[in-house]
Specification:
By secondary structure, the protein is α/β, with parallel strands linked by helices. The protein has 9 helices and 6 strands.
Length: about 250
């Protein structure tokens, strides 16, 4: 609830599927009532219209039914409530994915999945609208991390519980294939100062539960200011405005 409390937050409900992770730290937050609930992202146990804000930080990539999880988040928001969500994007670990594909094709004559499917930044906005949200905004950050080699990267992924959890994964990957993958990774994605790079793409999404009081876009064709007038007011060429408004540019 966004009244009184600390920084405007009076009640904070933390939900996590792992009870151990949920209680990893039980330090009190002065001025805030903290409730901790063991819950699955796909089976949220909260009543309709319960929260002012729902925040999800890099957990929905594990959901089997991402659409269903977002619909449930919408359901438990109050009208005009805000969703703040961060999720790994489709370019995450693209170097590891391509290195594995080439190594398996060369050594085993086929390709198997090693990384969970992830949302494309181009599809994220449509996904929010499909789940009943209004005024979606999508942004993307690309973080490049340098590791000594592919083996250290995979060890790091295991340590952060990021191993392959797909049902269709191979039960056993030959050691020769692993070594071939690491060699390909080193040859294609090495850094000048040593080590190899790994890309982590983070898609940030904000959206609101619909409410009659929210701003509404005007009907198509109802504008009373032309692009030429706007270009004149900004003292720029109209082609510059057109370039800035293209869909490709707006997603960067």
């Amino acid at each position: 609830s966004l009244k009184d409390g600390r920084g405007g937050i009076r009640t904070l409900v933390m939900a996590e599927e792992s009870e151990e992770a949920l209680h990893r730290t039980d330090d009190p937050l002065p001025g805030i009532q903290v409730d901790k609930v063991v819950a699955d992202d796909e089976l949220l146990p909260f009543a309709e219209d319960s929260f002012d804000v729902v925040v999800s930080s890099c957990s929905l990539q594990w959901a089997n039914d991402l659409v269903g999880s977002l619909i449930q988040a919408n359901r438990c928001l109050k009208k005009d409530g805000l969703l703040l969500c961060a999720i790994p994007g489709g370019d995450t670990l693209k170097e590891l994915r391509s290195s594995f594909s080439m190594a398996e094709q060369e050594r085993d004559g086929g390709v198997s999945p090693h990384i969970s499917p992830m949302v494309s930044v181009r599809d994220a906005g449509d996904l929010l609208v499909r789940c009943g949200f209004a005024m979606p905004t999508v942004d993307v950050d690309e973080i490049s991390v340098v590791y000594p080699d592919a083996y250290v990267l995979m060890d790091h992924l295991r340590g952060m519980a990021g191993s392959n959890v797909l049902f269709g994964r191979r039960e056993y990957v030959p050691r020769e294939t692993i070594h071939a993958m690491a060699a390909i990774y080193q040859s294609m994605y090495s850094e000048p100062e040593g080590g190899v790079r790994a890309t982590f793409e983070v898609i940030s999404m904000t959206a609101w539960k619909p409410d009659v009081a929210q701003p509404k876009p005007k009907e198509r064709g109802s504008a009373d200011v032309s692009m030429h007038d706007l270009a004149s007011a900004l003292e720029t060429d109209i082609s510059t405005i057109s370039e800035l408004s293209t869909p490709e540019e707006s997603t960067k």
